[in-house]
Amino acid sequence: MLRYRLMTTRDYKAAYDLWIKCQNGLNNKDDSYEGINKVLLVAFKKNEAGNAFWEAEGFTLRDDLNYRNKALTEMIRIDPEYVK
């Protein structure tokens, strides 16, 4: 069973070392001390107007990521447009 806890500043070096050891998709910017260098957002595929807006703002689609989540408690989708 996995145990979760909040990350603290004492975890930074180990987390950074792990991040650097990862391959594919990382860059050379450690923005924890520099400010924001990149922005990520999530938009539903069916949200045509929203996706058109973000594309017009210069956001591009990535094909190198898999978005994953895990519900820790039961959740029921209530939006009427949702289709599994």
What would the keywords be for this entry?
84 residues, mainly alpha, extended
Task: Describe this structure as you would to a colleague.
The protein is mainly alpha-helical. Helices cover 23% and strands 0% of the residues. The chain is extended and about 45 Å long. The two termini are 28 Å apart.
**What is the strand content?**
under 5%
Q: What's the helix count?
A: 2
Q: Which structural class is indicated by helix and strand composition?
A: mainly alpha
Shape label: extended
Query: How many β strands by DSSP?
Result: 0
Give the ordered list of helices and strands.
HH
Q: Which percent bin holds the helix content?
A: 10-25%
Rounded Rg: 17 Å
Residue runs with pLDDT of under 50 for 5 or more positions = none
Q: Specify the biggest β-sheet.
A: none
Fold topology:
Layout (H helix, E strand, L loop, with lengths): L11 H10 L26 H9 L28
Summarize, please:
With 84 residues, the protein is mainly alpha-helical. It has helices at 12-21, 48-56.
